[in-house]
Amino acid sequence: MSRRLAVVMAFLWSTLACAVNAAPVVYTLDTAHSRVSFYINHLGFSTSIGLFKVAEGRFVFDNEAWSQSTVDVSIPVSSLELGDATWNAHMLSAQWLDAAQFPQMRFVGKKVESDGHGGGKLYGELTLKGVTQPVVLDVKLNKLGEHPMKKAPAVGFTGTTIIHRSDFGMQSSLGAVGDDVQIRVEIEAFVPKA
Questions:
Q1: Nearest C-alpha neighbor of 178 from the set 49, 82, 33, 34
Q2: What is this structure's pTM?
Q3: Going by C-beta distance under 8 Å and a sequence separation of 6 or more, which residues neighbour residue 189?
Q4: How does pLDDT run across 93-124, given as a tens digit for each residue?
Q5: CA distance 126 to 105
Q6: Of 4, 50, 129, 135, which has the highest C-beta tally within 10 A?
Q7: For the chain, which domains are there?
């Protein structure tokens, strides 16, 4: 092989390698380590804390170009856990979340912006109780690397935002129970082995 051909081949190989490394990666959600928690004022006496499980799903993340990432996550409303069976049933009733008629919440990301320091903004739409509203999450990239147990590429994020439950048709007990709902999302995901 001539020196010139070798240089051309090396250039093409390095270009291809960079393109591969920069390509978006499809991650599968680790449902055992992904949760949505929420916090809401209860009668001024305390902040009630609830959890939802994240359903099985995938998202695309490109660490070199966050804007190329996509998110579409569903959450089963019936996975609600408030630490008390009676309270769970009350909150799943038609007065509140109406899980029978609206069994899924869904968040679809529309745009992702990086701040260049491992954080950024995730702009999207949340559909809850049949109502869709824009939501912006502050996101932090916790870690990107090989999962020590799965021996596969993995990534983890924390996301936070505040929504108003009244925007989603939940008007019950406003003034006594808070309207602002603080939300924290913990996501762990990995690339399944072929």
A1: 49
A2: 0.84
A3: 27, 28, 29, 30, 34, 58, 59, 154, 155, 156
A4: 999 999 999 999 999 999 999 999 999 999 99
A5: 7
A6: 135
A7: 24-190 (2.40.128.110)
Q: How far apart are CA 107 and CA 51, in angstroms?
A: 16
Beta-sheet pairing, 25-29 with 58-61 = antiparallel
Residues with Cβ within 8 Å of 19's Cβ and at least 6 positions away in sequence, in order, are none
Q: What is the pLDDT of residues 155-190, one digit of tens each?
A: 999 999 999 999 999 999 998 999 999 999 999 999
86 burial (CB, 10 Å; 0-12 / 13-18 / 19+) is exposed
Residues in the chain: 194
Let me know: does 97 contact 129? Beta carbons within 8 Å: yes
Instruction: For residue 112, give both structure tokens.
Output: 């992702």
